[in-house]
Amino acid sequence: MSALKRYSRFKHLPRAVSGPLKCPFEGALLLQSSEFNKGSAFPENERAAFKLHGLLPPNIQTLDEQVQRAYQQYISRDDDLAKNTFMASMKAQNEVLYYKLLQTHLKEMFSVIYTPTEGDAIQNYSRLFRKPEGCFLNIRDQDSLEECMSNFGTAEDIDYIVVSDGEEILGIGDQGVGAILISVAKLVITTLCAGIHPSRQLPVVLDCGTNNEDLLKDDLYLGLRQHRVRGKEYDEFVDKFVQVARKRFPKAYIHFEDFGLHNAKRILDKYQSQIPCFNDDIQGTGCVTLAAMMAALHVTQAKIDDVRVVVFGSGTAGTGIADQIADTIATETSKSKAEAAKQIWCIDKPGLLLKSHGDKLTPAQVPFARDDEEWPTNKQHDLLSVIQQVKPHVLIGTSTKPKAFTEEIIREMAQHVERPIVFPLSNPTRLHEAQPKDLYEWTDGKALVATGSPFPPVEYGGKEYDIAECNNSTCFPGIGLGAVLSQSRQVSKKMLVAAVQALKARSPALDDPNRPLLPDVEDVREISVDIAAGVIKCAVQEGLAQQEGIPTDDAELREWIRAQMWEAVYRPLTKE
Question: What does this protein need as cofactor (predicted)?
Answer without folding.
Answer: Mg(2+); Mn(2+)
